[in-house]
Every structure is written in C-alpha cells, then in structure tokens.
Amino acid sequence: MFQGSLCERLDHRETPDSAIAMIDAEGTVVGWTSTAQRLVGYPATEVVGQAVSRLLPLSRQTLLDWASTEECLARGGWSGTATIRHREGHALKASLRFSLLWGQDREIRWLISGTDIASLSPVATTGSVRDSLLTRTPIGIAVHDQDLHCAWTNDAMERQDGIPREKRLGRRLSDVLPAIEAERLEVVMRQVLDSGIGTVHEYRSWPSADPRREHAIAASYFCLQDADGRATGVCCTSVDVTGSQRARERLAILSEASTRMGNSLDVMQIGQELADLAVPLLADYVNVDLAESIQFGEAPFARIGPMDNHRRVLRRAGMASIHPGVPESPWARGELVVVPPSSPFTKALSSGRSHLEPVLDGSPGTWFDRDPDRARTMRASGMHSLMVVPIRTRDACLGTAVFIRTEEPAPFQEDDLLLAEGLVSRTALALDNARRYARERSAALTLQRDLLPQRVVQGTAIETASRYLPADVDNGVGGDWFDVIPLSGARTALVVGDVVGHGITAAATMGRLRTAVHTLADLDLPPDELLSHLDDTVRRLAAEDADSQDPTRVTGATCLYAVYDPVTRKCAMARAGHPPPAVIDPYGKVTFPDLPSGTPLGVGLGIPFEAVELELPEGSRIALYTDGLVESRDQDIDVGMKRLGRALADPGQSLEGLCSSVMETVPARSPGDDVALLVARTHSLSPSQTTCWELPSDPAVVRRARALVTRRLTQWGLERLEASTQLIISELVTNAVRHATGPLRLRLIRHQVLTCEVSDTSDTFPRLRHARTSDEGGRGLYIVAQLCRRHGARCLAGGGKTVWAEQELDPGL
Questions:
Q1: How far is CA 580 from CA 480, 492, 593, in A?
Q2: Quick check: 578 and 496 in contact, CB under 8 A?
Q3: Which of the pair, 445 or 773, is modelled with greater confidence?
Q4: Torsion region of 9: left, alpha or beta (phi above 0 gives left; psi -120 to 50 gives alpha)
Q5: What is the pLDDT of residue 437?
Q6: What is the DSSP string of 99-142?
Q7: How far, in Å, CA of 437 to CA of 297, rounded?
Q8: In this structure, are residues 113 and 237 in contact, taking their beta carbons and an 8 Å threshold?
Q9: Which residues contact 409 (CB under 8 A, 6 or more apart)?
C-alpha cells in the first residue's frame, strides 16, 4: 500500500503541467490553454473553431466513431500515446488522455490533456508508472464559465468530493461547498481568469459535501480561451492524493523515529520514545514492554522458536495515551509485567510474528479469562482494536509493542500494521545498539574495576584518598592508574602512572604495568631501580605490539614511584617523564620538588633514572596526579600546576574534601585526557614503636638477641608472641652470623604488625628450600615462613641486605 501511494505521488510530482484543449461532440476545438500553445505552438486564435484532426492524424469521422464507443463512454475516456503535429511542422509523441465531460441536458464534450513524452523524467516514462498516471489514476474535471458557474464536469469529480453532477452543474462552488472553502477556491479561479496563467494547489483537507470524508487533492487550474484569445472559462483538473499524503505522513513518522531513537542509548528512554511517537498519530494507547536483561546488556529471551506456554516477565519501558495519566495501563512505567500464556503477547514473543485483531474479542473463553487485570482495564477503557508487534532482532525477541484504539472508531488495518512494524523495527535497531553498548560498557567497567585498586590501603603510617576521571566518560575506562602498596618495615609505596592513549586498549596496557609494578615492589627495589626494570617491561610490550601489526596499539607510559618510611619520615621518589608531586606541609604551603624528570617509559634511551629523598614533617600531605589534571590544549602546564597548588593549599580540609576541591578545578566538559589523583597524609612512628640494636658477628650473640627481644616484647605487652619471635630471631641472626661478616643490626617495629629485621653486610640473599633428611642445615628460612605472615629481603642503599619477617599482633585473629 505504501509503495503504490508513493508511486502516485512521484508521478504527480515529476509530471509537467499538461496541455489542455476542449472539443465538442463534433470534434471541433472550443477551448484552448496557454499550456497547449507551449506544447504544439498554435495560439488559440489559430485553433479554436477548427477540427481537432488538424492536430491529430485522425479523420474527424474516425475520432467521432472512436469517441462514441461504449467502452470509451463506460470508462469516461481514453488514454494512450499518439503523434501530434507541431506548428513548425515536426511531429511530437505525446501522452494523451480524453476525458468525457457532462453538461446540462446530458450534453457531452471532451477534454484532451497531453504531455510531451520527451519532457517526462525517466521515472515517469516507465510503463508501469505511465499506466498508473494515464489509466488508473482518476482525474476529476470541472469547467466553470466566466461567472464561475459549473458548465461541464466528469464522473470522477463526484467521487472526489461527493457532490452529484446534477447539483454541481449550473451552480457556483459557494452553492455546494462550505462558504469559507468555496470562497478560497473561487479566488484562485478568478486569478486564473484574470491572468490567463494556470496554477496548482494542494490541499491537506479538500472541502467535501460530506464532512466525514477527508481528502488531500492536487488541483490544477487552466484558463480556457476562445478564437479571439479571450478567457471564456477556467478548467480545474484534480487528482486525489490522499494515499500519497498518508504515505508522506507515515514516511515522516518513520524518519522522525529513526532520528529520535537513534540519539539515545537508554533502553527505557527508547521504549518511551516509541510510545510518545505513536500516540495519537497511530493509536490511542501504546505500551512497550522489554526483557529486563536488556538494560544490563545481557541476552534477552531465547531464539525465536515455536510458540510456547511459558509465562514471560517483562518490564514496562514506555507507555502513552490520549488520556491524561494513562488510565489504560494497570502497571506503571518501570514495573514488572507478567505476560499470560496463550495470549497474543506470548504468541508474538514466541513466534516473532505480529498479531492484528481489528475487532478485539473479549468474550468469555478467550485469553481474557486468564488475564483478568488486563481484561478488566481493556473493557473499562473501551479498547476495541489491537495490534501486538514483537520487538525483534535477527535471533531474539527483545519485547513487545502494543497498539490499541479506544476513541478512534476506525479499526486497525493492514496499512496500520505496516506502519507499526516500521516503527518497531527502528526501535529494535536502537534497542539492540543500546543493549550492545550496555554489554560493552559493563565489560569495560568490570575491567577497570579489576585493574584499579578496590580499596586503597590505610595504615598507621599513611592515609590516602583518590579520584579517577577517564576521558572516555561513556565507557569509564582509561590508561591512568594509581596504587598504594605496603612494603616491609612499615613503609608504603605510592604510585601514579599514565599510559599513552585512552579507552579499553590503554586500560589493558595499564593493567599489565600495574601488575609489573606490584611484582617489582615486592622485591623492595629502590624507586630508581624499579623504574629501570619497568622501562624494560614497557619496551618489551612495545616490541610485542609492533609484531602484532596493529597500528592502533601504541605502548608508552609515564610513572612516578615514591616510598615513604614512617620511622625516618623520609620519602624517596623517582619519576619517568611524569609531572612532579605536590608536597603540602602542615601549614598549607605547597611545593613541587625539583626531581629529575627522567625519560618516559619505553623510549629506550638507556638513561638511568635518579631518585631523590625528602624528609617530610609529621602531618605532611603529598599529592600524586597525572598530566590530565594540569595540562590542556588551551593552557600551559604551569598554569595548571598553579591552579592545582591553590586547590591543595588548605591545611584544615580532609583528604576527601581536598580531592573534591581539586577535581572541581577540572573543566565541566569532558576532559581531553584521563585524570588520576592520589593524596596521602603521612604519619611517623613514635620512638616507642621501634627498637634497634647493633650486635657483633659472633655465634654467641644469638642468645643475647633473644633476651633483648623478650624484654622488649614484655614492655609492649606482646608476651604471646615471645616463643615465635624468639625462633624467628634465632634463625635470622644465625644466618647473618654464618653467611656475613661485620656487625649486625637487629630492629623491631610495632605498627599494624610486628616486624623483625636483621641487617648485615652481605649481598647474598637467603633462599627458601626443602632440606633433605640427611642435610644438617637449610631449614631455618622454612621455619621462619611457617611462623610469620610474610617474609623477605631487601638491599640496603650503602650495600648489604635486610632480612625481615612480619607477624600478626593478635595470632588468634
């Protein structure tokens, strides 16, 4: 139906104005128009009063015999192609249409309309389209005299406006049509008579004698001239384009649906957009129910298959009504809707086919009996016509769209179902895109959540707060990262890094580098050495990406690594092409330490990194951040660092409040780069929490070490750890005496755990191994591992090593 209407509209639009001539029953030209003169070159003064055979290669008698045939009279005319003579002597192939006109006393005349085939567009000259124009499209004709009385008309005119021929002939339009509309049309006809120029008007609603009939008519007006070239009347030819008008309106609805629904990735909003668009243009009430899993990007119902009797549970995503408050819906938007089995809704979901019920059958014994709530509402609302259209993709049903009429008396027809299916197909595409987006976003957020620390470590030595703002705000993933890593000896490592690029690829690379930093941090490497090893890792990843021949993968990063020791209140840090940290003293003064910048990771210049050690007063704060916080396309980084310094200079604010103040300085629009911020407040351990002894390298010192440790544990109230600690100290001191030379240092630290440390001058690290039954040694470190929470060893800056072990302060927990 849509295609047919559209073709008719296309024919009318692309067909030029027809040449009009009027002949009497004897075949004599009695009226001529300017369009006819443009076609054949003859003015009215040379044609009117002459036989039409002068133009057509037919004898007058042949023309009269043909025009009087029963077939021609029954069809109201004839149409086809013929060769006509131009005034300059050449022949024209024209499309002609002879229309039979009736006058008073059943007198007949003929109106000839012709168009040069060569002037038609390629579309209009195709056989099917031309036939539709010339034979199947009824053209209404009415000829009015100089006083605008109707003198001649054809039968098609009555079919268009419902006015019988007897009531039209001899009367003006004001006698048969509403006054306002008649006056408007007569003004047009008067203008044509005065100017002699034809005009075309298309009315959305053509006046009709029956107010219940509404038509859209394309009407053309031509001035008829006599032998002296004077205007004798006006000829109106009209084509009912109601179908074309309806097609245009429905195409406009589909176009608007694609625009409106394509702008959203919210499944609930898309469902509401469909309902709002269809009411009242198509239905009086519409509801859209979707599978609940779609909101989370998960698969909807199973593949479209045979009809089943399972109850479906949907969520009402959209509804609209011509009545305020949508009284037709028993469920509010967002509520779960149970779809009964063996209902049109379940059938549509299971089969994937639409259900059209022009006259809704709510009699006993139908599906209404199994859904009393919905049935009660439908009867109370006066619902009488129903369409259920499944919202489906290639392999699944996402839900249903239900269209209902209550006030509109006309039932739904097949063309209404076609429009509804067109709307729903566009909705399904938008919903599928939203579902895929939700699934991808969920996967990206899961990846980001797993890559970034879920809980930043808090301790007695340091407390932290953080913020993260990705440039890809839609997916929430980026390549920046931060971390807080507990180290041995109550120390804490603070890390912030920035991977080249944005999105999920950068986030995946960030995850690999974060894992590498954790592994290197467990080795207790100094900041400069750790960055050197991390640089090797980035270069290796870059080489792997180059081998993958993926041009979108570019591996590179910057990083800042700092280690804070609460015993000495010293913070050692190094950076690889990263912005320097901001240090805020207890009084709110902000400084940016002058650290060697280093080269970005993965550059491969081989330049060693340098570490700097700072002493931080008690209660100092240190802020680590990525360049997205201080750098933008329209501002220099120095301006951003000054802005950051002003935001940090508030000694009385909490860490969370400080992070919020800093993030408020980021422009409201989406940042051009990822932003990561980590703010830490440092605390030092009191002298009473640490004890250190210098011991000689002598086997006899083991007993003394146990005694010193026992005395300190008693002072700390940790007698319950005495036995295990004595064993740990015995093994660590014995190993140091056996494998190292020079003095030893024994240190105990009580913070969140009890740390036992033994330092010596040897660079050889102890190794955990399984001793055989015949071995005399090799079991010491194994015993230590069984007694402590964790253990390890680290290098000392001046040479030597420290072997350490940690115990829980309350072993019973």
A1: 16, 18, 7
A2: yes
A3: 445
A4: alpha
A5: 76
A6: EEEE-GGG-EEEEEEEEEGGGS-TTTTSHHHHHIIIIIS-EEEE
A7: 7
A8: yes
A9: none
Question: Whole-angstrom Cα distance, residue 189 to residue 186?
Answer: 5
Q: N- to C-terminal Cα distance for the chain?
A: 79
Q: What's the full length of the chain, in residues?
A: 813
Q: Single out the residue of 678, 259, 162 nearest to residue 456, CA to CA.
A: 678
pTM of the model: 0.56
Q: What is the rounded distance in angstroms from the CA atom of residue 463 to the CA atom of residue 465? A: 7
DSSP structure class, residue 765: P
| Paired tokens of 593 | 């330490």
Dist. CA 21–CA 447, nearest whole Å: 79
pLDDT by residue (tens digit) across 272-301?
999 998 898 889 999 999 988 776 555 565
598-624 pLDDT, tens digit each: 999 988 777 889 999 999 999 899 999
Rounded to 10 degrees, the C-alpha dihedral 531/533/534/535 comes to 90
Q: Is 463 helix (H, G, I), strand (E, B) or coil?
A: strand
796: exposed, middle or buried (Cβ count in 10 Å: 0-12, 13-18, 19+) = middle
Bond before 300 cis per omega within 30 degrees: no
CB distance 344 to 357 below 8 Å = yes
- pLDDT tier for residue 706 given thresholds of 50, 70 and 90: very high
Mean pLDDT on 53-66: 63
Output the pLDDT for position 521. Answer: 92
**Letter for the amino acid at 435?**
R
For residue 592, the model assigns a pLDDT of: 95
